[in-house]
Design a protein that fits this description.
This protein is an alpha+beta fold and 99 residues long. Helix content is 25%, strand content 34%. It has one domain. It has a four-stranded antiparallel sheet with strand order 1-2-3-4, with helices on both faces.
């Protein structure tokens, strides 16, 4: 994926869910912002609810990766902590071992 395509697709998602994603921490609910890996800015993220799922979309700017992940809702709604935990431990690091 080119950087331009990644940025365009991320912008579409962000524009669609901007009103919902008012926080800065996906473990607490809908949010958006940027993130770092090993002290360096690595990309952007947005978390939102859609249908019966909590979802996170993120960019990995170094590798021009646009990632999506979702987690089925619990009876009380999206499992924001579970989705964020998965992303912090795995999703945001895709490609990092390729240094």
């Amino acid at each position: 994926m080119t950087k331009q395509a990644m940025d365009r697709e991320y912008a579409i998602t962000k524009d669609t869910f901007r009103d919902e994603a008012t926080g800065r921490d996906c473990s607490k609910g809908p949010a958006k912002g940027s993130y770092s890996v090993e002290g360096r800015r690595a990309g952007r993220f947005i978390c939102f609810a859609t249908g019966a799922k909590g979802m996170i979309v993120w960019t990995h700017d170094r590798f021009n990766i646009l990632g999506y992940a979702s987690l089925e809702n619990t009876p009380s709604g999206p499992d924001w902590k579970g989705l964020h935990r998965w992303w912090r431990n795995a999703g945001r690091l895709v490609g990092e071992d390729e240094r």
